[in-house]
Amino acid sequence: MEAEAAKLIGAGLATSGMIGAGVGLGNLFGNYLQAAIRNPSAAASQQTMLFLGMALTETMGLFSFVVSLIILFG
Amino acid sequence: MVEQPTIDPMHQFLVQKIWQGPVFQMGGVSVDMSITNSVASMIAGGLLLMAFFLLTARGQIVPNRAQALAEGVYNIVDKVLVTPIIGHHGRPYIPYLFTLFCVILVLNLMGVLLAVGSLGGLTLTFTVTSQLAITATLAVLTFFSVFILGFVKHGPKFLGLFAPSGMPLPLLVFMVPIEMISYFVRPVTLAMRLFGNMLGGHVVMALFGAFVVALGLAALSGGLSTLLIVPSALSFAMIVALTGLELVVALLQAFVFTALATVYLNEVVNFGHGH
């Protein structure tokens, strides 16, 4: 296989790390919504924590994105 | 057959010189004072922020629209972040966090709102926060100010941050290195998050923009390929939706960066209070 082709395939494979970030984000917002529907009065106070958790979860996906960029252009 | 335009979504992130400035040597390092599109965007963002706050700084009891907007932005930092997370001990740090929030927000929004493309091959509008150098500067500045503040406030006791209390000694041998790694990777994650979000969003927008043009041109060639006008129009609708999403992301990332800075600051300010 040519090195260039292997590079492109590798960059594509590297993005599969985003699967985990997707599952994590789904979990996060799903659980938040469930809790918010059960106790709507407490929902607003936890919104900051929701976005913090979102940021930390999203970072994992972004790492794979950055790795694939490094493979492509590095 | 119309000539197909090349699809190059990364072109918008090229740093190009607008004005060739003097280059001089300073301590063995050559310093280039040229104005690039990145520098020009940062200057524009800074002027915009300064003009906005000069106009709204004179507080009135009944605020006008601009002042209400400025107070709303301030409340995001004060009432949503600093007061609930740190408490009233966090008040001295609001100016830094507020500046951080405003700078990132303005640079993000300028990247989305002014993303109209290039003029004569020169990208005039530029998303400053999609450059890793800029986000890394902000992240390192934030992280090390907080880290040094910890030593200034608590002295060598601050190193206890890396040793969770109530941990048996054999476990501590493993926990301290892990804690240290997870602590010192913070500036990297801060920088990567902002950089990745802005870069990713703008690449996707540029790709759909290229689809609109490429498919639209192919549709012009007549015959059965006229049907390609449908995916072209769909791509355009996608751009509209993505622009809305990017506006939300611009605000959210500024918020998240400031929120994480606040959380890191909270560990320092309320160190040892178990808060």
How would you explain this protein's 3D organization?
The complex is a heterodimer of chains A (74) and B (275). Chain A is mainly α and 74 residues long. In chain A, 81% of the residues lie in helices and 0% in strands. In chain A, helix 1 (3-14) packs antiparallel against helix 3 (47-73) and helix 2 (18-38) runs antiparallel to helix 3 (47-73). The longest helix of chain A is centred in the C-terminal third of the chain and has 27 residues, at 47-73. Chain A is elongated. Chain A starts with a helix and ends with a helix. The mean pLDDT of chain A is 88. Chain B has one domain (37-269). In chain B, the strands form three sheets. Chain B has a two-stranded antiparallel ribbon with strand order 1-4. In chain B, strands 2-3 form a two-stranded antiparallel ribbon. In chain B, helix 2 (65-85) crosses helix 3 (94-113), helix 3 (94-113) packs antiparallel against helix 7 and helix 4 packs antiparallel against helix 6. The longest helix of chain B has 41 residues, at 229-269. Chain B is globular and about 75 Å long. The A-B interface holds A 45, 48, 51-52, 54-56, 58-59, 62-63, 65-66, 69, 73 and B 10, 80-81, 84-85, 189, 192-193, 195-197, 199-200, 252, 255-256, 259-260, 263.
Which helices and strands occur, and which strands form pairs?
The complex is a heterodimer of chains A (about 70) and B (about 280).
Chain A (H helix, E strand, L loop, with lengths): L2 H12 L3 H21 L8 H27 L1
Helix pairs in contact in A: 1-3, 2-3
Chain B lengths: L16 E3 L3 E4 L2 E4 L2 E2 H20 L8 H21 L8 H20 L4 E2 L2 E2 L8 H23 L14 H16 L1 H34 L9 H41 L6
Antiparallel strand pairs in B: 1-4, 2-3, 5-6
Helix pairs in contact in B: 1-3, 2-3, 2-7, 3-7, 4-6, 4-7, 6-7
